[in-house]
Amino acid sequence: MSKGITITPLYSGSSGNAILMSSEQTHVLVDAGMSCKKLVEALNAVRINPFDLNAILITHDHSDHISALDVFTRKFNIPIYATGATWRGIHAAEKKPHSPHLDNEIIPGTKTPIGDFEVLAFDTPHDAQGSCGYRFESEGHVAAIATDIGVMTPVIFEQLRGCEGILLEANYDNDMLWNGAYPYYLKKRIAGEGGHLCNEDCASTIVKLCKSGTKHFILGHLSVENNLPQVAERAVLLAMETEKLVRDVDYTLRIANRYTPTAPLWLGDPQ
Ligand SMILES: [Zn+2]
Ligand SMILES: [Zn+2]
Fold first, then answer.
1. Ligand with an atom nearest the CA of residue 31
2. Taking the chain, what is the end-to-end CA distance rounded to the nearest angstrom?
């Protein structure tokens, strides 16, 4: 493989999340939702042997991000990285303990080398203690994953700025959420500062990022109840058109599939 970073969402959404980040020599998983069986199937589909993973990075302890972790870890013994508060949630959720030498604590704001990646965790406002996103650098290339964001903060934006490619949450459409079937308390939770990012806020963030040099965007973590791929896509396209930014000229946009691997996004030296 040539120098660069590849983002391959294995599956993404409120139903479960796992994203493969690959560099020339390193494969890292961000989150391990759904089930061990589904995760192995998805890795097989993109021709990655689970034993070849260098690490699993966890963003937070909600089940759509860790439900495969317990069984997967005991089967494949891959080192895990998470913030201290997230570790408490992971340990509370696991049915049987795994080998403690796999546990690594990641400190937001501090770079951690994993293979030929430099990984930087950054705090995200979400109703899970220790919640974070991740920025990856390898051989001069930069990419980031940011989901489960109640509100876009300057801290997050600073870490996304300058990335070549980003997977960003587009969780819900405001009309679908507020006219939908969820109970009021849940609607407030999702739209609140500890909830998720709506399509419109995702779109305005993407406009700003595109203007500051980011070229490649993947929308992820769509709600199954309160969003549709074409609705999220339209929100971004409209915001970009308003700013005269042209798809496939000024930027590329794809939507991560909910249940199956999405075409890899390659960010790197020309091949
Ligand atoms: Zn969450
Ligand atoms: Zn989530």
1. 2
2. 9
Q: How far is the CA of 125 from the centre of ligand 1 (A)?
A: 10
Contacts (Cβ under 8 Å, ≥6 apart) of 73:
56, 80, 98, 102
| Gap from CA of 93 to ligand 1 centroid (Å) | 14
- How many residues make up the chain in this entry? 271
Tell me the domain boundaries of the chain: 4-268
Topology annotation, domain 4-268? Metallo-beta-lactamase; Chain A (3.60.15)
Using the mean position of ligand 1's atoms as its centre, give its distance from the Cα of residue 250 in Å: 31
- Distance from the CA of 266 to the center of ligand 1, in angstroms? 27
Q: What is the CA(82)–ligand 1 centre distance, in A?
A: 14
| pLDDT tens, N- to C-terminus, the chain (271 residues) | 578 999 999 999 999 999 999 999 999 999 999 999 999 999 999 999 999 999 999 999 999 999 999 999 999 999 999 999 999 999 999 999 899 999 999 999 999 999 999 999 999 999 999 999 999 999 999 999 999 999 999 999 999 999 999 999 999 999 999 999 999 999 999 999 999 999 999 999 999 999 999 999 999 999 999 999 999 999 999 999 999 999 999 999 999 999 999 999 999 977 6
